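Sample pair:
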Amino acid sequence: MYGVGASGGLKNHFSQDEEDALKKDESSTSIVRRETKSTVDISGSDRTWRAEKEHQKSVGENGLAAVEHTVHAAAEGAEMAGLEIFGAGVLAAASPVLGAALALRLGLGELNEAHVRGEDQAIALARDNGHVALVGALDLPDSYKTKRLEGDFAHVSKGPNTPSGKMTQGVMNQKGDLATLQLHADRGMNAARDLSRSGAKAEAFLAANPKIAETYRKDPAFREGFDAYLHTKATQPAAAVANMDAKLNERDGWYAQSHVQFRV
């Protein structure tokens, strides 16, 4: 599996530079930002651009309901105040003025909110390029990579001359960084395999293993590995699962030989 060195012993799979990088164990977020020259950080808890739009839509609908409630309450308050202090005659004039003032304020607020929504979507798109680069560079089951790249990130332009393509190549060009990202993904795969073998629900497993849960939330490569294992286990035939396990076992052997921790 590893080859034989001149001394007759097993030859390390990793080069010295890769081994040094693995033992440094730099964060996935830091590596991806540097090697993709991105202006934003990615994490395991990022929303995609499409998910961000849905989130904004949901928040917007809830916000509109709150505004309608506020206007209604303000009108009722004005009516009460008009009847009590000025009499019914003043109310007719007071309510339109109040309504106009509220409309102006809400209009300005809507313009500002639209600007913020646009910025958040632009940031989400920039993060998506980084996630596509990460998934493209990692050794993950093909079915899962297809799900991510052609499903979750279908809106991201791909190819060698696109931003995501150039980012992917940037990650893959640095072998030590790529080995470290794969290590983080494999830690996620090992955690998911432990979950699968335990028979527990994912929520219960993560609740019982807070360090794994925190790494899943923070580390994008760990999360890709974790989700890839569970996706493959749940959707692919036994032969594909066996192949995934065999490749993971082989990489775990490489880490063990280099005295690198491959579990969280």
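The chain has a mean pLDDT of 85.
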